[in-house]
Specification:
By secondary structure, the protein is mainly alpha-helical. The protein is built from nine helices and no strands.
Length: 183
């Protein structure tokens, strides 16, 4: 009987428009979390790491980086849960990062000229994915969805195997970005 009542309650909900860009935004945030968490590990095992600064204790780097990584992961979860405040922050942050990506094109050119292709990873993320996230999250259907959806509905829509794929994309992107930033 409880299952039937919940099915009726779900059927009574108005049809929400299909949002756009949520997967990309969540993968971006979880990628930042993965990168932030992976940097201390990378510096610990890489003797030539550029993050080896005099007086910087690797344990201190873990203590600082891992809570920051948790903040990025939490923020991605807030986007996945349909939090309207997180949508606004995501749009502004990715817009600023898009501008930073355009500015970094000069550095990319200089790095490629000397044979360092790792900055291409960062540039692709900032020049292609950040503006795409902004564009997709600013679509009217997405704004309407964020205003009308409950966290439970949002997690139901963006759950299951979807989460697994987004986590995978976030980890791959975060690890690649770590290598790019350390080279």
């Amino acid at each position: 009987m409880e299952t039937h009542e919940s099915d009726v309650a779900q059927a009574a909900l108005p049809e929400l428009p299909a949002p756009q860009g949520i997967g990309m935004a969540v993968a971006f945030d979880w990628g930042l979390a993965a990168q932030t968490a992976f940097v201390p590990i990378y510096t610990l095992f890489s003797p030539s790491s550029t993050m080896k600064l005099p007086g910087l204790n690797p344990i201190l780097l873990f203590v600082i980086a891992w809570p920051v990584a948790c903040v990025f992961a939490y923020f991605g979860e807030m986007i996945r849960s349909g939090r309207n405040w997180a949508l606004r922050i995501q749009i502004v942050a990715n817009a600023v990062l898009s501008i930073a990506g355009i500015i970094s094109l000069f550095n990319l050119y200089q790095n490629i000229r000397i044979g360092n292709f790792w900055p291409l990873v960062t540039t692709i993320i900032l020049v292609i994915f950040s503006p795409l996230i902004v564009w997709r999250l600013t679509r009217p259907a997405t704004a309407q969805w964020f205003q009308r959806v409950t966290p439970a509905q949002a997690r139901q829509r963006h759950g299951g195997i979807w989460v697994l794929f987004i986590v995978l994309w976030g980890i791959v992107g975060g690890v690649l970005q770590t290598f790019a930033s350390m080279k």
